[in-house]
Amino acid sequence: MDDNSLVYIVDDDAAVRDSLSLLLRLKGYANRTFASAEEFLAQARPDWRGCLLLDIGMAGMDGLALQRELANQGGTLPIIFITAHGDAAKARAALKAGAVDFLEKPLDNEALISAIDEALDHAARERQASAARDGLAARLARLTGRERQVLDLVVEGRHNREIAVQLEISPRTVEVYKARMMEKMQVRTLPDLIRSVLSAEK
Amino acid sequence: MNNRIAAVAGYLVLYVILDWISYIHPVLPVAITPWNPPPGLSLVFLLRYGTRYWPALFLAALLAEILVRGIPAPLPWLAASSLALAGCYAGLAALLGTRIGARFDKLSDLTRFLALILPGTLVAALAYVAIFTFAGLVPQHEFFPNLLRFWVGDAIGVMVVTPLLLVHGAENPALWRSLRPQPEMLAQAAAVLAALWLIFGVEYSDEFKFFYLLFLPLIWIAMRHGIRGATIAILGIQLGLIVALEWSGQRSAAVVEFQLLMAALTVTGLFLGMAVTSRRALEEQLRNRQSELNQALRMAAAGEMTSALAHELNQPLSAISSYLRACQLMLELPEEQHPLLAETMDKVVAEAARAGQVVHRLRDFYRSGELRLERLAMEPLLQGGMEPLNKRADREGIALSLKVAPHLPEVLADRMQIETVLHNLVSNAIDACGASRRGEIHVGAVAEGGAVRVCVSDNGAGIAPEIAAHLFKPFATSKPQGMGLGLAITRSLIEAHGGKLWAEAGEGGGARFCFTLPAEFPTIIAHGR
Fold it and tell me: Do the Cβ atoms of B321 and A22 come within 8 Å?
């Protein structure tokens, strides 16, 4: 778990909030609590990492509405819903809208912990992928026009000679561009290059 | 099998007895009588046991000729006439069997029955009279009068006997129980006798003039007891009429004319009785459906209640479970963490108490158990009860206002219960206003004698008179989804406080619900020097 990952608990029941916070703290999960969806929205920042433990039925803005609002703002926090009484329709709606899990009160603490772990894992993977995307974009930005053309053709699987014909330059010059491009992209071999470009495209 | 033999034997005996009883004013030497019930019995017998028993009809007719009339004509002619009758009635029974319901409880059954038996008995009469006329046993020139006499006799016999036996079939013992004698039935029987006496007993009167009087007791009976009462009354009137005719020594021709009138009376009574019966059955069906519906709604409301209760209980239970899990983890920590442990366990106790409160609150809501009385100021109390409904009133465009008279005394009351009362009354008022027009709800509190009176007035549709009578009874509701408990609970809560709750018509057609609470006058405290 990243150091700056938190479990954000949003529940309008003070005792539920307090007990969850205490339990998770003892289990080693740093957390913050919010008494309503509105309170969370007012304080939330886009760089928050971790996961959201969200009560579905709250006075005022309910859990599903908060989920929608966060999605509209492009939020990436994975959401675990908790509910005081099973409502199949709401559960379906929540999961369809991308919730990680749906737990019923009284909470099974083991199920809760594994759901949180899964959500945090999910968030970490998500973050790595996004970091990879960001890194690639930065490296691509450093390429010149010719180097970029050579990269695109290499990834398409063309040989140096074909590239030379297409770009109307000598194969020797292609070699030079390719070497410079590989250096800027920080890869040694062609398979490495292709892997890094493809993984970021996911 | 023995049952069948007993049934056939019983039928034969009954047939002969009926024939013997009704053997009056015959056209000698054969049995052309003004009323002839045996064919009615034959039809019921065949309907019950099947038309393949038709030979029993032949046997019965022949036996009656031999036993009742002592072989009035040569045997071959008697056999031929008996065979003809058996064939005609077997055919009629076959037609009836496929066209009327076994329970004979619908108007359509009765209509089809009459439509079939009138031509059916005519065919039988034709066959019977033709055979004896052909044999030369009755004069040829009297063919048509005899035909009419036989037809009317058989038709009235069938109309009186067959519906009676079908309606009071042995498979319906419940019907008999419901016909236990009541004073009203004695009065009805007396009315029939009185009518007969007026017709035949009063001198200087032409018997036919007062025949219509018999309609009155028959209509009375049919209206009260339906087809079951009507069929019995018709039999009674018919027997009374026959006895009266015999006793007053009427001419044969007059007897036949009376039977024509009797046929009209019978048809009237049967139709009226059947109409009453089928209408009652329909009403009962509607009532049953209504009560099933109410039951379903009540179950739905109970389900809603259960789900709300589950929600309320799950919150503290969830907290307790998490706290205790946390306590377990703390026990594994070094000793210095233990103060936190004690604190957490206090929280567990508090949550357990909260779960208990949910259950108590529910119980208090249904039966106003012990009151937790406090001295309360009216204004905040009323505001507290109305507050949860402000949003709903807003949404439905209803103006909700509160006016508390100045210097009102405090009341000694259970806050939660009075808030419940106000919540129920205001919520009802919102329902009454509906969304159709600009609703206004006013809550006002004034001092009145030694009490405070609170009134919730609305400008809605008002209280329908049919509801007003049982407004406060449990399960009386005008709302499609209502359980009808609100006002009943509300009243019991107010009465537990020593107050009263009543409804009255408000200004402008709406309703006004008012309750009183005994005032608690402040003890006058002498302020300091």
Answer: no
